[in-house]
Amino acid sequence: MARKLLITVDHSKCVGNGTCLTIATHVFEHNWDRQSVVVNPEGDPPELILEAADNCPVSAISVKDAETGETLFNSVDRRQ
Amino acid sequence: MVDPSHVSPLTSYLDDIFAPEVIADPHAWYRALREADPIHWNERYQVWFLTRYDDVVWMIRNNELFSSAVIKNDPRPPYPPIDPGDMHLFEPARQFRSEMLVEQDRPEHLEHRKVMRGFFTPRAMEAWRPFIRHAVKELLDQVGSKGRMNLHAELAAPLPVRIIVEMMGVPPEDREILRDLADKLLYLNRAEPYRLQPLTQGIEGLMEYVRPKVEARLREPQKDFISVLTNGEKIGAMTRHQVMVNTALLLFAGHETTMNLICNGMLAFIRNPGQWALFKSDPDKWADSAAEECLRYDPPVKSTQRIAAQDVERNGKLFKQGDRIRWVISAANRDPEIFPNPDGFDIARSPNPHIAFGEGVHHCLGVSLARIEGQEVFKAMAERFPALRLDTDQLEYQPSVQFRSLKALPVTW
Questions:
Q1: Residue B209, CB half-sphere, CA atoms under 13 Å: how many?
Q2: Would you say the ipTM is above 0.90?
Q3: What is the model's pTM?
Q4: Using an 8 Å Cβ cutoff, are B342 and B335 in contact?
Q5: What is the four-CA torsion angle of B377, B378, B384, B385, rounded to 10 degrees?
Q6: Is the CB of A55 inside 8 Å of chain B's CB atoms?
């Protein structure tokens, strides 16, 4: 069984580029402000979710193992 | 309709977007525009100006309502006017421009962006940091002992070309050729009436340069950016012409924008010695937030354009389908509703949700590269030239409504 993921989108960073929506199509959607939100964390395989996080142009997505808390996608963004 | 008897001196001031004083100090003009009429119809150039942060972000995130295919969807002649004798050059230049990623709408835009985005991820670009740091060092080594330099010509202009040449996967000996072609391509967004002449030379020269490189990579792919695009052709996402045009786009889009980030940022530091002192106290600590503040305070791109894809109303104003709309980054970035003390240069500013890279589906593909270039340049300048000061009292900017481009930046130390 695939492990459960805790996926968060930092709305102070999200620019509404929509890249994540085009990779993990069942996981992310745009809200009314055109920022990404997680609608179904189990909607796509973990590999696709990690690919979406990696391709986010502003590193707004973080991914952790929901049970262990282990960080699965570590943002390279060093901005404060 | 505007009643001519009601056209105030303010309106005529607000409509003269190419006035020398507006080119010299656009921020005062943007402030006046934002305060007087944040969604303003510029009668003189037949174009809307959006200057409030909320309006701009709303517009550029709603890509279905506002088309980026600006050149393709605008039947009107370009502004400001071009020399009538050059009109035959307009159509080829328009063809070239309309194939660029930045001028496309979905679904084509998404297919092309999918081809390119993997090359530009934050992680992939971070791997370029050592190369960029070394390129900055090499360029500064050449000027270090002179005691003065034109920061524009000796650092800001050669640096992005050096990096793009490496990314394209072409030999370093070709730097001068590509820099010359890049300089000509920059006329794409200039105001000079003769601009189509150098632009056409740039387009033709670059197509000629790129063609054999593209053919070679179709036969034998490498790990470079041209191979990323030729792969796009192989999978049927791009035409050959689009491969060549988007190679040119890399050279064009990564060139002047980076030059402006470096020059406008360094000028902001020089004019704000307290902030320069703070930055120098710990460049590693401040590099990231300082680069963001440079991008907010005097952004490389002042404004750019969309075309209304349908009739849309906003705050009582009606954009009609086909209307031209300029969204002013430099004005949104100093909107007091979002940024406290907006005209102050504050490298510790946090949060700093500036929109120097745009927003939405067209958010700058090279964002991570630009950030790294800015951070590395500012750090290197602080470490090597801490006593930097301006070596002129006359600064001139290119007459562009789009780019905030210094013509030269003489400095001494």
A1: 25
A2: yes
A3: 0.94
A4: yes
A5: 120
A6: yes
